Amino acid sequence: MNLILFGPPAAGKGTQAKRLVAERGLIQLSTGDMLRAARKSGTELGLKVAGIMDRGDLVSDDIVIALIEEQLDMNKGAAGFIFDGFPRTVPQAEALDTALAARDMHVDSVIRLKVDDEALVARIVKRFQDEGRKDDNPESFKIRLGNYNKQTAPLLPFYSAQGKLAEVDGMADIETVAASIAHVLDRQGGQNQAGKKSFWARLFGG
Ligand code: AMP
Q1: Do the beta carbons of residue 25 and residue 132 sit within 8 Å?
Q2: Is 162 in contact with 153 (CB distance < 8 Å)?
Q3: Of 70, 91, 113, 145, which one has the greatest count of Cβ atoms within 10 A?
Q4: Which pLDDT does position 188 carry in this prediction?
Q5: Domain spans of the chain, in order of start
Q6: Strand partners, 84
């Protein structure tokens, strides 16, 4: 089961991804976390992306695609992946499909967490108080939200056309959002099982 958690900054993707890791044994691949780790350890990559991240802009597609491919290869045989904060552009989404296909995998589900802009602002203010992330300030947030609307939201029709998109009310409390996500995943798991049965039934006339 490979799943994309989709939504604007502070929609709750990271929080929900961590729950799915604990509950379903999936591996969370957050490009934001990977880039922050690179900065913290002072690597060349970290130095290169620091200014871009603080400003709220997107780092180049090549960089994040390489990070994801590296993780896919480091976690061969995993039960599945949760992509958190990736893909964020159409070229990233296309590269993800190619990278997964090359490893005999595909995206099963894209779950969009829908949250009002006003609620996002309130969450960013709180997260800055709790975690002190440099890009959780009003100027950077405006740029991040603008980039989401311009570059990331166009992925919604891309995944909708593939029949993979499900929407969840991300305004609800954490438990309710988690339950809605579980519902989507379990329903989809059931459909996959039913699909398998009908395949064998067709083959053997059962
Ligand atoms: P996040 O933690 O997902 O909000 O990411 C923090 C910052 O890392 C973003 O504002 C971007 O500067 C950068 N970043 C994370 N993921 C991506 C991505 N998929 N594409 C481009 N930039 C990214």
Answers
A1: no
A2: no
A3: 113
A4: 79
A5: 3-190
A6: 5, 30
- Determine phi and psi for 103, rounding to 5 degrees: -115, 20
Q: Is 120 in the pocket of ligand 1 (CB under 6 A)?
A: no
Active site residue 76: no
Question: pTM of this prediction?
Answer: 0.92
Structure tokens at 8: 């604007």
Q: Which listed CATH number (3.40.50.2300, 3.30.1390.20, 3.40.720.10, 3.40.50.300) goes with 3-190?
A: 3.40.50.300
88 is catalytic: yes
Our answer on whether the CB atom of 56 is closer than 6 Å to any ligand 1 atom is yes
CB 20 within 8 A of CB 177: no
Q: Which two tokens stand for residue 100?
A: 């997964």
Q: Is 24 marked active-site?
A: no
The whole-angstrom separation of Cα 177 and Cα 118 is 18
